[in-house]
Predict the 3D structure of the following.
Amino acid sequence: MQIIGNRRYVEIPGERTHELPPLLVRGTPEIAPLDEVVDMAADIVDDEVMVADAPAESWTGGSTSEKRRFDLALNLAEQYLKLVAHWRWGDSILEWIRQCEITFETEATLRNLLRPDLWPHAGRASFVTLLTDKSVPTHGVVLENAVGLRLTFRQPPPISCFSNQFLFYLNTSVAGSAYQTWAGLNSDRPALLPPERFHFQVLSMA
C-alpha cells in the first residue's frame, strides 16, 4: 500500500500501464419536446403557487406575473434537463465500472486487487476518484453527484415527480449525500487506483 499525503493507493506489480474499457457516455435522449417539458414545469409553478396572482400589467402583451411564471417554468425545465444529463453520466459510469470488473478479473496482475477495501461494493468509488484524477472532461457534470443520482434512481423520473424545491435546491445535496453514503460504507478508508497506471478513452455516444 502506497500512502501519498492523506491518500492510500494500491501497489500494482510491474510498471506497465493497464488499458481499461472505454467510458461510453450516453447522450441525453429527448425525454419530451422542450415546449412540453416547459409546460409540465409550468404546472409545477401553478401547483406550488410559486407566483402570486397579480393585476394584469402590460408586458409585450402579457402580465408581469405571466412573465414570471414563464421564467420560472423555463428555469425548472433547465434544472430538470441538467438533472437528466447528470443521471445519464452516472448510468454510464456504473456500466463502465462493471466493464472494468471484467478486465480486472481477466488480468492476473489486477485480479489480486479484488479485495474488500476496493471491490466489489462501495469500493467502486475508487473508480469514480480515478475519473477525477484523470481529469476526464465532464462539461460541467459533477461526477459524484452523477453517480449519486444513478444510485438513487434506476430511471430518471419525469419532471412531474419533482417539487420545485428539489429541482432548485435539494438536487445537488441529495445526490451528494447518496454518493458519500455509498462511498463511506467501507469500514476502512478505501485504497485508490494510481492514475498513472491506467489508461482509457472517454467516448460520447449520440
Notes: DSSP finds six helices and six strands in the chain. The first strand starts at residue 2 and ends at 4. Residues 17-29+86-205 form one domain. Residues 64-106 form the longest helix (43 residues).
